[in-house]
Amino acid sequence: MKSTDVLDRTKNLLSEAREKSHGNKIINHENIARLWTGYIQNKFKLAVIILPEDVANLMALLKIARTQQGGFNLDDYIDASAYSAIAGEIANKRQLQISATLGEKNAKSKKSSVNK
User: Fold this and answer.
1) Which end of the chain is least crowded, N or C, by CB within 10 Å?
2) pLDDT tens column, 57-89
3) How far is CA 76 from CA 40, 87, 111, in A?
């Protein structure tokens, strides 16, 4: 199987049909991040925050770890690829939100300093 075939199968995992059965992937990763954050903070008494893209990256690592035991399973590679794509989508969305927020704050501060 070629890498483009693997990516085609990965795209199927990220389809709208998948979202109908499992819900919105970004909302799911946000929920998981909050639950994992609470669990780790409580268990280890650490002040950590797990971000939604961390969840996707950690799930990709889980799939990669599975490639090191047992027999060959192409689905491990396909799933890891899908989680990596989800992490990229979430991180990109977060960066755009941060940039937009900073842009608004900078625009307001420039406007108020011009009016003084």
Assistant:
1) C
2) 999 999 999 999 999 999 999 999 999 999 999
3) 26, 16, 52
**Of 35, 28, 29, residue with least CA distance to 52:** 29
Question: DSSP string of 35-65?
Answer: HHHHHHHHHH-------HHHHHHHHHHHHHH
Backbone angles phi, psi at 33, to 5 degrees: -60, -45
In eight-state DSSP terms, residue 69 is S
Q: What average pLDDT does the segment 11-38 reach?
A: 92
CB 37 within 8 A of CB 50: yes
Separation of alpha carbons 6 and 75, rounded Å: 9
Amino acid, res. 72: F
Residue 110: per-residue pLDDT? 56
Instruction: Quote the DSSP letter at residue 15.
Output: S
Contact between 83 and 63 under an 8 Å Cβ cutoff? The reply is yes
For residue 114, report the phi and psi dihedrals to the nearest 5 degrees: -70, -35
